[in-house]
Amino acid sequence: MERESLDFFRKFVDSMSPSGFEEEARESWKKRTRKFADEVSSDVHGNAIGVLNKNGKPRVMLAGHMDEVGYMVKYINKSGFLYFSPIGGIDLHLVPGTRVWVKTKKGKILGVIGRQAIHLLEVEERKKVAKLEQLFIDIGAKDKKEAEKLISIGDPAIPAVGFEVLNKDRVVGRGFDNKAGAWVVSEVLRILSKKKLKASVYAVATVQEEIGLRGAHTSAFGIAPDIGIATDVTFATDYPAEESGAIKNGDKRIGKGPVISRGPNINPKVFDLLVDVAKKDKIPYQIEAAPRATGTDANVIQLTRSGVATGLVSIPNRYMHTPVELISLDDLENVAKLMAGFVLQLDKNMDFTL
């Protein structure tokens, strides 16, 4: 991976972007993408959109959501502790004993989600998952008045961890779901900016996917693409806790290449072309069976207006929705190459009607 691309990915992953509060990630994405897009903008919903060859045919939309799961402050008690609700799907097994950044109007503030010492827990309590109403964020405030000088109701928070290289091409971080995909669509524009295009390309870092695929719904309606390719992470099944899950979720492995989805959410001609490009360009790939609507931006893109020829290309990801998600940089780079190769095959005479 080129140094600039990796440096951007690191910075992008470390930015805060819980659903509905993506502004830090959005500005990072727009600043980078302006270097090679013909135009970059954002919409009223907060989606960031980069465009190449605006008047080309067909019109293709590439989507990767930049929001992440997190927490939202909902109550401050008299002692200055912050109670919260989840933003998106949070595993409560992992929440106690973690550090968090709370995003405020005055900047980010460090806090901890404490838990009663194990010495003081009854035997049965040790076996139970903590209930949400039992969890709180401690920012070190002496009372409610001091806490309210720093924190407002509705402030979001995320785990206070960042991007790290684990081993060679394996990296670990918070929010690879789905800053990895949003990075890909920016990277595809970088690759395509050096090529002669027939298609017009709209790369979108979408918002609020984790709470209902919301950004992709509005941006796809506005762009009105002929073809839409979403990129997201998918469940890797190559580690002990998930090995038996391969029966349910398919065999998808870190480092074995992009995962191309096949099923009713996917246009068969788009699927075939993605596979053809992977073979032609010698890009390793894996197939994922998706027998119903996927829980990704591809779902709403396909159903936009009178319908969009849609595909989904995913990055294998271990430990999804935890602070230690793990992916392969080789997979990430190959997803970008595959999607760029797909766009280069498009021309105005191609028909994706079934």
How does this model look, in words?
- Helix content is 28%, strand content 27%.
- The protein has helices spanning 3-14, 23-33, 123-126, 144-148, 176-192, 214-223, 246-249, 268-280, 297-302, 329-344, and strands at 39-42, 48-52, 59-65, 70-76, 82-87, 98-104, 107-113, 137-138, 156-159, 164-167, 170-173, 200-206, 227-235, 259-262, 286-289, 309-317, 325-328.
- The protein starts with a helix and ends in a 10-residue tail after the last helix.
- Strand 4 and strand 5 form a beta hairpin.
- Helix 5 (176-192) packs across helix 10 (329-344) and helix 8 (268-280) packs across helix 10.
- By secondary structure, the protein is of the alpha+beta class.
- The protein contains ten helices and 17 strands.
- The strands form three sheets. Strands 1-2-12-3-13-16-14-15 form an eight-stranded mixed sheet, with helices on both faces. It has a six-stranded antiparallel sheet with strand order 5-4-9-6-7-8. A three-stranded antiparallel sheet has the order 10-11-17.
- The chain is globular and about 70 Å long.
- It has two domains: 3-68 and 174-344, 3-Layer(aba) Sandwich (Aminopeptidase), CATH 3.40.630.10; 71-159, Elongation Factor Tu (Ef-tu), domain 3, CATH 2.40.30.
